[in-house]
Specification:
Distance between the termini: 82 Å
Number of helices: 4
Strand content: 5-15%
Largest sheet: 3 strands, antiparallel
Strand order of the largest sheet: 1-3-2
Radius of gyration: 24 Å
Order of helices and strands: HHEHHEE
Number of domains: 2
Helix content: 40-55%
Length: 142
């Protein structure tokens, strides 16, 4: 008959398993932090694409054909606003000043190209994870 494992050895096995699980959780957290950093950097550097105007035109026509008078153009995490989305959440008329990166460039495009034609733009917080502002939706209406 094989020798039984001692309680002390069982504790060591359990401890090693717990340490491995903690290490995996820590490494997963680190990967999420790194991924958020890369996504933030990509959002800050992203430019409006030349084909974007035509894609927007097609999306607007499709929305009108569905009988709606607005289109959610894009979303982004509220923590990418300079105030983490507070101005948007509080309907502050100066909310566009809190935009950075791609969102700021998209707002400039709206001001120069769309607003003069009667389009309206609004921003909304669309979720509240942990009670804090989450994603921002940028919505174009006509």
């Amino acid at each position: 008959m094989a020798d039984l494992i001692s309680p002390n050895e069982l504790r060591k096995v359990a401890e090693a398993k717990e340490i491995a699980a903690s290490r995996e959780a820590y490494e997963a957290d680190q990967r999420r932090v790194e991924e958020r950093h890369h996504l933030r950097e990509a959002f800050l550097k992203r430019e409006l694409q030349p084909e974007g105007r035509e894609r927007l035109r097609k999306a607007l026509i499709a929305a009108a054909e569905r009988g709606v008078d607005h289109l959610q153009v894009f979303t982004f995490p509220s923590d990418l606003c300079t105030d983490s989305g507070r101005a948007i959440n509080n309907s502050d008329p100066n909310w566009p000043q809190t935009l950075v990166g791609f969102a700021a460039r998209a707002y400039e495009f709206y001001e120069a190209e769309l607003r003069p034609h009667g389009y309206r733009l609004r921003a909304e917080i669309v979720d509240f994870p942990g009670g804090k502002p989450g994603d921002v939706a940028i919505i174009l209406a006509w």
